[in-house]
Amino acid sequence: MSGWLVGGGGPVIPSFGHASKCLKNNGWFCTGWVHEHWGDTLQPALVQHVKLTVIAVGIGFVIAFLLALVGFRWHVFDGPIGAFSDVLYALPSIALFQLLLPVTGITTTTILIPLIAYTLFVLYRNIVAGLNGVPADVLESARGMGLTRGQTFFRVELPLAVPAIMGGLRVATVATISIATVAAFLIHYGLGAPIFDALGMPDIFRTELVAASALAILLALAADTLLALLQRALTPWNRIR
Amino acid sequence: MPTQAAELVFDEATKVYPGREGAAVDHLSLTVPAGEICVLVGPSGGGKTTALKLVNRLIPLTSGYIRIDGRQIGDYDVTELRRSIGYVIQQVGLFPHMTIEGNIGTVPRLLGWDRKRIRERTGELLELVGLDPDKDRRRFPAELSGGQRQRVGLARALAANPALMLMDEPFGAIDPIVRTRLQDEFLRLQHELRKTVVFVTHDVDEAIKVGDRIAILREGGRLAQYDTPQRILEHPEDEFVADFVGRDRALKALALRTLGELELSPAGGDDGLPRLPADTSLRDALALLIAERRAALLVVGADGSPLGIATREDLLT
Questions:
Q1: Does CATH number 3.60.21.10 belong to domain B8-254?
Q2: Chain A residues whose beta carbon lies within 8 Å of the beta carbon of residue B93
Q3: CA angle, B150 then B155 then B157, to 5°
C-alpha cells in the first residue's frame, strides 16, 4: 500500500481508486475484495485445496485398504500395522512438513506425504473394524450355504463394512482439509496460502483471513455432506434401523 | 445329488476337537431314511450341533464316514456339497444388506440361475412359507419380526430345492406361541416337500412333535437311543433316556396317538356320552374324561357320524 502512495504523481493504479472504506478500515469481511479477488486468489486456492484433499484421501484409502486386507486376513499383523498408523498420526504436522522439505523440495509431494500418512490411522482402523464387525451368524450362514472365501468377502463382509468405511472416509476427509491449510506455512499452496498471506501482513488482512478460512470450513462441510449422502445411497438397508 | 430326498448315513462318525479331552461326537452310527425328519436331541455337551455340522463339513470329521445317498461327503467338492444342502440356524443369519429376495436367491445366484427363474422361485417360496411375495420381496431383514425372519431363513434354505436340510435349533430363539405356529407350518411343508431333514433341538417336546425319528445323544456325543418318538416314550432303553424324556413320558406318548387308531366298541345309540372327533389325541381325550368325570366317550367321524365308544381303559392300554 505504501508503495502506491509514494508513487502518487505517477499513473493511477486502477484498483487503488476502488479501495473501499471497508478495506481501509481492515474490516472483517469486505465483499468488494472477495468479489475482486475470487478469480485470482480464492478460487485457485480452493481448487488446489480440493485437489490436495482428493489425492491425499484417495491414495490414503488405497494404502489403508490394502493394509486392512492384510490385518483382516492375518490377525497377527493387525496390531503392528495399527500401532504404526498410530505413530504416524502422532507426529506433529508442521514438523513432518519441515522434515520432508529437504527431501522432496517445494512441491506438492511434500504436502501430500504427511496428509496421506494422517489418513491411514482413521481409515485403517475403520476398515478393519468394519470387516471384523460382521456378525458371526451371518458368516456362519454364508459358509453353510457354500459361499467361497472370496464370495463371502465381496458379497457379505465388504458391503457390511461400508458404513464403517464411509465413517472413516468422512473423518479422514475433514481432517485432511484442515491439516492441508497448515502445510501452506512452508509451501504456498491451497487455502492455507491466502490464510498465511493475510497473517503475514502488518495488521493481519482480516478479509482475506476470514474469507479463506470460511472457504476451508465450507469445503469440509460440503465434503462431509457429500460423503454422508453417498453412504446413504450405498447402504439402503442401514436406514431402517 | 438327486433333488427329491436323500438318504443320510452316519457310519461310526467321530469328532475329537484337538486339545480337548474326549470326543464331541463318538462313533455315531445311524441312518436317516430319505424323506424323514431325524431330530438330534440331548443335553448340552451331547454333540448335537457338532454332529449336524459334520454333515456339511463346517466341522471336519476326525474319523468314520457320512454318506449322502451312498456317496461320502468327503468325495464332494465342499462348496458344491454345501450348496446342495439347505442350512438353517437359530440366529437365522440373514444378510442384513440384502433384500428378502436377495437373501432367498443367494444359492440360486451362486448356481448361475437366470434372474427370471430366481424371481419366480422367490415368489413361490415366499408364498410357501406364508409371506407376501409382492410386499415382502423388497424389504430388508431389519424390517421383519423374528418369526418372519426365520420363515425367510427356511425359504432361503429351500431355494435351490435341496435333497437334505440341516436345521440347527431353527425355532429356538422364537417366542413360544410363534414357535408352535412355525412348527406346525414346518410339518405341513414337510408333508408336501418330503425332504430328508436333520433337526437339532434341546427341547424334548419339540423333538417328539417334529421327529419321525429321534436320536438322543448323551454327554460325550454317544448315541443313547435312536427310535421313533413312540418307541422312545414307551420303551426308553435306559435310565438316561427315561430321565431325559421326563416323568410324564406316558402322557407324551398318549399325545402321539389319536382316537381313530383305537379299536372301538360299537356305539349303542346316543347315550349322552361326550363326543370327540377321531383325530383327537388320546391325551386330549383323557384330559376331557378326567375333567368331565366320565368313563367313556363317543368317537365321531369328520361328518359327525358315530364311529364307536372308547373307554378310559381303552385310552390307557
A1: no
A2: 135, 137-142, 144
A3: 95
Enter the C-alpha cell of residue A131: 470387516
pLDDT in tens, B94-133: 999 999 999 999 999 999 999 999 999 999 999 989 899 9
> What is the pTM (predicted TM-score) of this model?
0.82
Give the torsion through C-alpha atoms of A103, A105, A111, A112, to 10 deg. -60
B276: which 3 cell numbers?
Answer: 370327540
Q: What's chain B's average pLDDT?
A: 91
Set of cell numbers at residue B19: 486339545
State in Å, rounded, how far the first CA of chain B is from the last one.
44
The shortest CB-CB distance from B93 to any of A141, A235, A236 is to A141
CB A89 within 8 A of CB A118: yes
Q: pLDDT-derived band of residue B60, with 50, 70 and 90 as boundaries?
A: very high
All structural domains of chain A, each given as residue ranges with its CATH number in brackets, are: 37-234 (1.10.3720.10)
Looking at A33-37, A73-77, B129-133, which range is the least confident one? A33-37
- Asked if A33 and A207 count as a contact pair (C-beta separation under 8 A), the reply is yes
Q: For residues B231 and B249, give the distance between their C-alpha atoms in angstroms, rounded to a whole number.
A: 11
3-state secondary structure of B14: strand
Instruction: Give alpha helix (H) positions in B105-145.
Output: 106-110, 115-128, 133-136
Residues A241 and B142: beta-carbon distance below 8 Å? yes
* DSSP-assigned letters across all residues of B16-54: --TT-SS-SEEEEEEEE-TT-EEEEE-STTS-HHHHHHH
Give per-residue pLDDT as tens, A134-159: 999 999 999 999 999 999 999 999 99
Model confidence at B61, in pLDDT bands (50, 70, 90)? very high
> How many whole angstroms separate alpha carbon B188 and alpha carbon B206?
15
How close is the nearest chain B Cα to the Cα of A73, in Å? 19
- The partner residue sitting opposite A240, judged by closest CB among B82, B106, B143, is B143
Mean pLDDT of chain A: 84
Residue of B nearest to A239 (CA): B142
The number of residues in chain B equals 317
Cβ neighbourhood burial of A179 (10 Å; 0-12, 13-18, 19+): buried
Q: Give Cα B275 distance to the centre of its chain.
A: 32
Residues 6+ positions from B317 with CB-CB distance below 8 Å: none
Fold of B259-316: CBS-domain (3.10.580)
> Using only C-alpha atoms, what is the Rg of chain A?
24
Mutate to test the interface with B, among A139, A145, A158 (most CBs of B within 10 A): A145
The domain spans of chain B are: 8-254, 259-316
Confidence of residue A18 (pLDDT cuts 50, 70, 90): low
Q: Do B107 and A135 make contact, defined as CB atoms within 8 angstroms?
A: no
- Residue type at A37? H
pLDDT in tens, B63-88: 999 999 999 999 999 999 999 999 99
Nearest to B102 by CA among B171, B25, B155: B155
User: Is there a contact between A148 and B56 if contact means CB atoms under 8 Å apart?
Assistant: no
